[in-house]
Amino acid sequence: MLAVLLTILKVIGIILLSILGLILLILLLLLFVPLRYKAEAYKYEAVDVRVHVTWLLHLVHVMLSYDGTEVVKKLKILGIPFKIGEDDQGDGDSGEESEDVTEADAGTEADAEEQTEDRSEVKAEGITETETKSEAEADEEAEADSETESEAETETEPAKDSGQEHKEEPAAEGTSEAETEAKDSPKKSRVEEKLSGIYNKYKHYRDTISDPHFKNGLKYAWSKLVAMLRHILPKKLKLKAHYGFEDPSTTGLITAGIGMFYGGLKDSVTAIPDFENEVLEGSAVMAGRVRLGTLLFYALQVLLKKDCRFVYKTIKAEGENKNG
Prior knowledge:
By secondary structure, the protein is an alpha+beta fold.
């Protein structure tokens, strides 16, 4: 019995170890086996663009293509093609659904017409009642207005006299210089407060940026970001352009601009200017690789750097102060 239990535990242990080993192998493959990409673009009589992304000796292959009208996406895993982004729904149900929708719309339109007729009748009755009421109210309002006008005439005479007396009173003396200064002083104090606040902010940010830890952290993070971009950028680049514009001087200016950098790009760029015809065609081919383990290594270096953590904490504290 004990021997049977030991053999069962042994088998379970082997299965668990094999599963852990498989997971570790997949992680190592993801980290250290690069993703290879290749992009091709051609523009002559028509536009043709193709992008290929492969991993693990083409066991996984993703392809995107564009011929000027539509984008085609394809996926192959172990040589088995899989279609991406296509609808599986058939057209059989669409006719039935459309018929049901039309019937429902017809029913709702009939109900809406009946409701509008009922509302119009109710509105007509309401209008006749309001007209009769409005005539009686108009007569009462006319009588009340005549009475109020007579009372207002009697009251306006003493009011006019009192207004004249107020006008005849001597005006107050002009505001003194002390009062004007008192009115202008709040404005000056506000401007001074704003200027002092701007200066304090400038001084705070200047001291923060001039901190050696902050400077070293930014410099180190920037260097690792540049290293990431160099790793991602294509290692192979071939550009060929045949161009010409309506104005030959434009063609000459573009040719001169390309010539400034042609010394370092002569193996990658081929420029063919045309000073007689208006044309724009050419091709571009680029290829490179991306290793996830390398990108993760650079990211970990930034996270573990003490000065970079100082920069992160400083920026986070500034954001919390603004929100607070």
